[in-house]
Amino acid sequence: MKILILNGPNINMLGIREPNIYGSQSYTELLRLLEQWAQDLEIELVHFQSNHEGALVDEIQAAHGIFDGIVINPAAYTHTSVAILDALKAVGIPAVEVHISDISKRESFRQISYAGMACVHSIIGQGLDGYRQAIVFLKDYLSN
Ligand code: CA2
Q1: Which of 25, 73, 124 to mutate to test the pocket of ligand 1 (most atoms within 8 A of CB)?
Q2: What is the value of pTM for the model shown?
Q3: Residue 46, CB half-sphere, CA atoms under 13 Å: how many?
Q4: Cα-to-centroid distance, 11 and ligand 1 (Å)
Q5: What is the mean pLDDT of each run of 10 residues along the chain (144 residues)?
Q6: Residue nearest to atom 2 of ligand 1 (CA)
């Protein structure tokens, strides 16, 4: 089973500021955890992060026929990007949305998730463990 992990803008800055919202673990630590979870769950994970909306759309399109599932944290593009929503719909790969923070309890502009409209499940406010939970959900979803 091949799962693509996509992270949007500024996720590579994790741990550097706002630890009260995003925790104190760094982006490098997230990559290390992803490697560990891939081993534990016997899943092939490929990770991609970009600060550019089009690059994320390109990666979603390129996943067609290659990946079985997508775990996506589009970061700020969650709340703005119809292009990412359309790309997820276009490839039709089961996707799970992850948000490190609980966006439902934050500013009003974070209350809408376009990407979430194309996802089979959303995990919010679970910190970095949300990525593990998303992978476990997808593994189960894809096996049934
Ligand atoms: O909670 C999440 O995972 C978010 O997707 C994170 C985004 C935010 O725009 C979304 O509303 C919710 C932000 C990504 C990380 O931004 C940082 C900001 C300061 C310091 C470190 C990272």
Answers
A1: 73
A2: 0.98
A3: 13
A4: 6
A5: 98 93 96 98 98 98 98 98 98 98 98 98 98 98 96
A6: 99
